[in-house]
Design brief:
Blueprint (H helix, E strand, L loop, with lengths): L1 E6 L5 E7 L2 H11 L9 E6 L2 E7 L6
Antiparallel strand pairs: 1-2, 1-3, 3-4
Length: 62
């Protein structure tokens, strides 16, 4: 299990959760920003006490 966090475009942590798999973590990330197509949302994973990039939003360009 790993700890993941979601950061908004301002760099503020908006959610943190322990999740079993990377696939589940990605689904949780999508759910956390479901109503927001703004660019700059990102997800990080904690490894050995440090946070590392995991995924980010590409936004809605339509």
């Amino acid at each position: 299990m790993a700890t993941y966090r979601v950061l908004n475009p301002k760099g503020e942590v908006v959610a943190t959760k322990d999740i079993e798999s990377a696939d589940d973590a990605h689904a949780w990330f999508v759910d956390q920003m479901a109503d927001n197509s703004e660019l700059g949302w990102r997800m990080e994973v904690e490894q050995d006490g440090e946070w590392h990039f995991f995924d980010d939003s590409e936004g809605d360009r339509s």
